[in-house]
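User: My instructor asked us to take a sequence, write out its structure as tokens, and then describe one feature of it. I'm not sure where to start. Here is the sequence I was given:
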Amino acid sequence: MTLTECGTHAQIDAAVGGFNGGEPEPAIKTAGSAAAGMLVVMDRGFPGVALWKAYTGAGAHLLIRARSSVAARPVEHLPDGTYLARMSLAGQRASHPGGVTVRVIEYRVDGGEVVRLVTDLLDPTAYPAAEPARLYHARWEAESAFRQIKTFQRGPAEVLRSADPELVRQEVWAPLVVHHCLTRVIMSLAEDNGIDPDRVSFVKVLKHTRRGVVRQCADTPTKIKEFLAVLAEKVGRKLDNGTRRLREADRHLKRPDSRYSSKFSYRINTRDRQPTRRVAPKTITLQPVIVH
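Assistant: Let's start with the prediction itself. The structure tokens for your sequence are:
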């Protein structure tokens, strides 16, 4: 589980959990790395009182997608169509003092399914509902960061070779550290050229870094400075200074590993998968709460 910057794809912190654990437990461990004022965006598997208190206690704000059963009963309707509700521990009443108050925002994208968000940003005047709805889409930047690590940086190599738990943790941390260093190079290039880090190709930086490291014969500060200067020159020739294109690709579920025959599992027909394509800007429509 990683805490990833949406704008730079840098991994701020990470936690390794056990095979029989869930995602919220390691996510709580990274709460200490959330800076005050940071907005942390999470998917629908994370809402919970313990996680909520861990991050808000660190001074961070939360924006989490939630199922319809989470904080379902409004306790106060707000002027912008959102409402306040109580989120409590399992088995407790909503009025239990151990729970937390959240703001529920519901909206549709291009008339699709209702997306339901919970946040600790309770003031509808300071934080209009359309703004959190627009920001939630940025959570997918974390998936792009994982793709950089697993597809481009690691490649088809075996994921975890070690049988010892400590060595497994080392294998997990090693690519994260390398990715963080590459991200620092990208941030430096973007700052020097006055562009968004998204406009610097991760693949090009990775390729030139690999070539440079192979030729590196010393690790002195002078050599490292020369290496970074050459890298900046090579990558700088192909910087994309244009605006970022809106793109999307079809989402497919992976076939789970199964100990049974293939007739008990399903496969993805890759021939039906469409390539990444340009799309028009999305239309976000807020869903006001109907008061009976």
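For the description part of your assignment, you could build on this observation: The two ends are 42 Å apart (CA to CA). Try explaining in your own words what that tells you about the chain.
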